[in-house]
């Protein structure tokens, strides 16, 4: 059949189209490529520390890797110029399977419900909470506990600014959990912190710090890694909120072994990616009570014959009430995608 060229004029000649080259199904094998760990992502450039000799390399990702496929903590296959010299670029060709992935879901705007990996391959999640300035929010702590258990990470609770208040209230609230709790005093004027115990807990681990702005994450990083020189900020006296000083996640090696990852301050931490039945993993003190619930119980306020209500009726103090309220608030906010106000 003659090709329709839009005219019958025999003088018109049409250049034949180029034949598309068949795409091969054979993919390059990067199993023997050198590996590095991503310690910072900045505007399309990936800063990587080579695992074999510690050389710091700047790289771009291969075109076949989708946007957002690489995060801090990823172990990646590297090709190209791996010398680390100024103005050289390597190429990331493959991302190794992640052992853990700390995920967060957006709760606002059109991106609500969209899941995003924040950090990969960390084994400890350090929940950093100030005892005062800004005031602690147990609801955020609970969300981060759930996120840690969902990611397969060990949670640690670090209460900073011990010099500004009494940590016993939070310590008592989370005492029933199998959770390591540390305290630290931060001198905001001098920009220093007492970190002996938490420093020992981080040795030999890949740990990520998460918490509100102004709780002292950057001050802590500067004490752990003096060369980090992370900017620190004050807390607004009117709103009680901290000012963002870290704009992106960044990993730092510890002198005694291990890695610590600083993250920007968060105001909310969405859990839309966590199934409701998995939320109880962040509340091990409530799991035993939930065993007495009828099959299919959602443990919500309106759930019929929920064992939580029976336990609350017999409770002699307010601790259990605080924990059940926190769980139910978390369950409701996860479903309704509302900000966490607690």
TrEMBL record:
The gene is rsgA_1. This is Small ribosomal subunit biogenesis GTPase RsgA. Binds 1 zinc ion per subunit. It comes from Trueperella bialowiezensis. Its EC number is 3.6.1.-. GTP binds at residues 160-163, 211-219. One of several proteins that assist in the late maturation steps of the functional core of the 30S ribosomal subunit. Helps release RbfA from mature subunits. May play a role in the assembly of ribosomal proteins into the subunit. Circularly permuted GTPase that catalyzes slow GTP hydrolysis, GTPase activity is stimulated by the 30S ribosomal subunit. Belongs to the TRAFAC class YlqF/YawG GTPase family. RsgA subfamily. Keywords: Cytoplasm, GTP-binding, Hydrolase, Metal-binding, Nucleotide-binding, Ribosome biogenesis, RNA-binding, rRNA-binding, Zinc. It holds the Pfam family RsgA_GTPase. It is found in: Cytoplasm. The keyword GTP-binding applies.
